[in-house]
Q: What sequence folds into this?
């Protein structure tokens, strides 16, 4: 599957399978941006693993010519952790939706973030459950009327960006599927980032929560003078939810989990010869 | 003559030695470590050992006790009556005195309590606490004083204790080492000044080579390392945590790693990710964690990923009795999860079997690209035994089948093959790209959620692997006693030794008895079971659970009225409990009376 350098085109990453998504789904924009980003970074498909959970977003690995793992609802991050630790040379990208990532899989996010596994995690946030036909989701606004909230949601929506900054993710950004060029650039930055890179992509559901008409008016670029290394300012920016702000909110460099593993192995091997017999001898 | 010696014929005086020591006292005051040191000393002195421990659920406080049986020959159970009780407090005395046989020895801390008059047993009141505080200045050294008393009184070579104290305390500095050596000597000197009134004498044991002293959990961890497991993910849970702790220390020495995940779902998810990426990987847990893992077992089955999942069973349901033993998770192990979901279930039978059993579990997982659930339990996981230095050639290491050459042209990860195993590519392999898929899928791994014929064919593929596994299950089934007995005993897991001992006792009494013990419980070794059951008048199935879970599974396959013997009090069987049932059933059969299930 090695691709000659000349063939690192977005086209080269397509499997030929046509996505099952509804025509007009925001996820097409995310997928196109991902193709573009992978081509730009010349990621060899044989060294790429795309891990997904369940939901419309979960089908993404099937549309990318690489290795993939279509796992269980909410379990993107544990599976991705195992893949990356087993072979740190792989480029690991996790993809999920707001239900998959923030509801059923929400318990995994803080731990992936604080471990700082070197991977990119893209959430296709449509604020609804598309695959199960339109229930409210953790990012649905208060008052949202859906099949499971016929009288309107009485819950506060979750703020993914503030949450990830608080949890210690070392890269936090937001994109919009309607702006695929900017989104591709953001995904590229996330993949290039050494550590856990989180990208929340506003990806409207054309069928159950069509926000295409309201999003453009709310879009705003992150101010040019924003210091991405300032966690407090990044947090303040994330709390401003009047607008859908696009770009990098926060980025810092910390040792990755894989680097830590190398250190642990060094420490252990300095204390003891790497032989099974030596371990047996400890119990005689 | 100890109560345990009666059932143990032998050919030399040292081989004939068979004593049960029990140490009891306040949890957190060194009862367990005293028992462990006594255990290692006896093993190094050349005896075979078999321990049993109970410990309170409290972190500190509560009653704790540790039992070690030491003998000149292979031990199959923790024994019956106690020969020597070391009671640090009155509670320990009250709880255990009934288990000390007439003629047995009681050593007690005379500073703590005075036992009532008892002509049946031999008592030594030793002021352990005051000897420790007055002569050493450290109250906790009363444990070491007690070991000195045991060493001198029972002629357990003192050098082994001295060696152990040096190993144990060197890290804490020479002063601590010296204090402990002095404490040992205080115990030794004390005994020199009293009259020995009991017959317990050990001396050097018959075995002259050094063996490993391992708990079940340590043994299986070593086996995992030996077979090439280099990745472990788990979540702390009693009584499985020490597997994670052991591997966290040992795996990095060999370039591997342990990750403590946020829960058990993540643990198995991480293991599956690592397995997908080419590593031999495992997790270990107990009941509550195993319940959480069931969704991931289904994923491993349908995505055809090798994985080893250890369940060190404890008393359930729910949080249950975390430190007590039970064989209650067999149903869940075999059938947990939705859909038609074939996985392999094995059970470990002894501390030594933990080592080779895990090697086999990995081999089967890798060979058939399936999850293998391995059942142990609290009693096996936490008991120690002497184990000969492992012979790695006994279980040749097998690797998973990977694609090569033509197989990578238009590669189909889940290609239908005659033996139902498809070559599995590993990320990084050119031409091997595919999606490991939890949806029903076709040969290429593409979702086929509406293809009805493909679902049947794929389900048959997954179940088809059972045929070859069943042959292995037959090979791994062991029988004891008479090959064609009137009374059969079928057990599983950690009851192997105790059943074997009970069968020996029954044969010596003239009963026609034999036992069968499979190592793979799902799929079942039908050929071996059929052959064994032929001609039997009755079959007893001892299980440490309430409902007879293995008996229930076998009733689905055989029209046979198995006689259940269930023990559901959080403790393992004693040989006598099983022997009594054999005797009762044999006599009833002989007299033409009916046989019936009981619980102890």
A:
């Amino acid at each position: 599957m090695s691709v000659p350098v000349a063939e690192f085109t977005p086209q080269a990453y397509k499997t030929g399978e046509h996505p099952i998504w509804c025509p007009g789904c925001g996820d097409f924009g995310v997928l196109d941006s991902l193709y573009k980003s992978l081509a730009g970074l010349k990621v060899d498909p044989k060294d790429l693993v795309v891990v997904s959970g369940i939901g419309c977003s979960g089908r993404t690995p099937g549309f990318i010519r690489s290795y993939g793992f279509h796992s269980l609802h909410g379990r993107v991050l544990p599976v991705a952790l195992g893949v990356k630790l087993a072979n740190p040379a792989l480029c690991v990208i996790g993809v999920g939706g707001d239900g998959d990532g923030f509801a059923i899989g929400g318990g995994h996010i803080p731990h992936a973030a604080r471990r700082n596994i070197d991977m990119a995690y893209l959430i296709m946030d449509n604020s609804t459950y598309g695959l199960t036909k339109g229930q409210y989701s953790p990012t649905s606004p208060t008052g949202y009327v859906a099949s499971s909230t016929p009288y309107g949601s009485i819950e506060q929506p979750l703020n993914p960006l503030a949450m990830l900054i608080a949890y210690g993710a070392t890269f936090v950004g937001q994109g919009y599927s309607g702006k695929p060029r900017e989104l591709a650039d953001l995904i590229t930055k996330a993949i290039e980032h050494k550590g856990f890179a989180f990208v929340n992509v506003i990806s409207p559901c054309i069928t159950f929560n069509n926000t295409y008409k309201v999003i453009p008016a709310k879009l705003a670029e992150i101010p040019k003078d924003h210091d991405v290394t300032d966690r407090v300012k990044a947090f303040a920016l994330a709390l401003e939810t009047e607008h859908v702000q696009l770009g990098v909110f926060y980025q810092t460099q910390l040792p990755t989990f894989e680097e830590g593993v190398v250190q642990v192995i060094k420490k252990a091997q300095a204390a003891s010869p790497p032989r099974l017999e030596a371990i047996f001898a400890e119990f005689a | 003559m100890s109560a345990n010696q009666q059932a143990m014929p032998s050919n030399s005086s040292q081989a004939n030695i068979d004593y049960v020591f029990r140490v009891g006292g306040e949890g957190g005051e060194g009862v367990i470590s005293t028992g462990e040191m006594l255990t290692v000393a006896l093993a190094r002195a050349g005896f075979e050992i078999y321990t049993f421990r109970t410990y309170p659920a409290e972190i500190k406080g509560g009653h704790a006790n540790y039992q070690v049986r030491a003998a000149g020959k292979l031990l199959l159970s923790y024994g019956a009556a106690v020969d020597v009780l070391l009671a640090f407090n009155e509670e320990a005395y009250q709880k255990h005195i009934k288990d000390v046989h007439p003629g047995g020895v009681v050593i007690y801390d005379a500073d703590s309590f005075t036992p009532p008059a008892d002509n049946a047993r031999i008592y030594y009141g030793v002021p352990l606490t005051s000897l420790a505080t007055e002569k050493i200045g450290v109250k906790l050294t009363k444990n070491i004083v007690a070991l000195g008393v045991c060493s001198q009184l029972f002629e357990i070579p003192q050098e082994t204790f001295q060696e152990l104290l040096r190993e144990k305390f060197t890290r804490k500095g020479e002063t601590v080492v010296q204090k402990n050596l002095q404490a040992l000597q205080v115990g030794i000197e004390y005994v020199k000044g009293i009259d020995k009134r009991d017959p317990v004498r050990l001396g050097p044991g018959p075995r002259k080579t050094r063996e490993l002293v391992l708990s079940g959990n340590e043994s299986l961890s070593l086996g995992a390392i030996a077979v090439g497991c280099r990745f472990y993910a788990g979540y702390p849970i009693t009584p499985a945590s020490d597997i994670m702790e052991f591997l966290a220390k040992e795996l990095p020495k060999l370039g591997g790693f342990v990750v403590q995940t946020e829960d058990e779902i993540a643990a198995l998810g991480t293991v599956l990710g690592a397995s997908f990426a080419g590593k031999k990987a495992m997790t270990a847990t107990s009941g509550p964690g195993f319940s959480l893992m069931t969704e991931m077992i289904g994923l491993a089955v349908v995505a055809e990923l090798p994985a080893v999942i250890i369940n060190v069973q404890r008393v359930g349901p729910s949080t249950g009795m975390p430190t007590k033993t039970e064989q209650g998770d067999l149903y869940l192990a075999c059938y947990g999860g939705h859909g038609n979901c074939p996985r392999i279930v094995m059970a470990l039978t002894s501390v030594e079997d933990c080592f080779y059993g895990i090697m086999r579990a990995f081999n089967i997982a890798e060979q058939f690209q399936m999850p293998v659930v391995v059942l142990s339990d609290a009693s096996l996981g936490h008991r120690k035994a002497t184990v000969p230095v492992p012979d790695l050639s006994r279980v040749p290491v097998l690797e998973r089948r990977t694609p090569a050459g033509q197989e990578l042209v238009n590669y189909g990860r889940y290609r239908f093959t005659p033996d139902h195993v498809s070559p599995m590519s590993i990320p990084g392999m050119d031409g091997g790209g595919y999606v490991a898929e939890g949806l029903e899928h076709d040969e290429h791994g593409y979702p086929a959620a509406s293809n009805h014929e493909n679902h049947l064919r794929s389900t048959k593929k997954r179940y088809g692997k059972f045929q070859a596994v069943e042959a292995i299950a037959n090979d791994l089934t062991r029988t004891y006693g008479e090959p064609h007995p009137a009374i059969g005993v079928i057990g599983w897991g950690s009851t192997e030794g105790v059943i074997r001992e009970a069968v020996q006792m029954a044969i010596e009494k003239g009963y026609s008895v034999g036992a069968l013990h499979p190592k793979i419980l799902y799929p079942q070794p039908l050929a071996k079971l059929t052959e064994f059951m032929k001609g039997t008048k009755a079959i007893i199935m001892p299980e440490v659970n309430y409902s007879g879970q293995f008996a229930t599974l076998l009733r689905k396959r055989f029209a046979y009225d198995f006689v259940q013997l269930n023990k559901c009090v959080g403790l393992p069987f004693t040989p006598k409990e099983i022997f009594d049932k054999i005797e009762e059933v044999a006599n009833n059969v002989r007299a033409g009376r009916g046989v019936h299930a009981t619980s102890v």
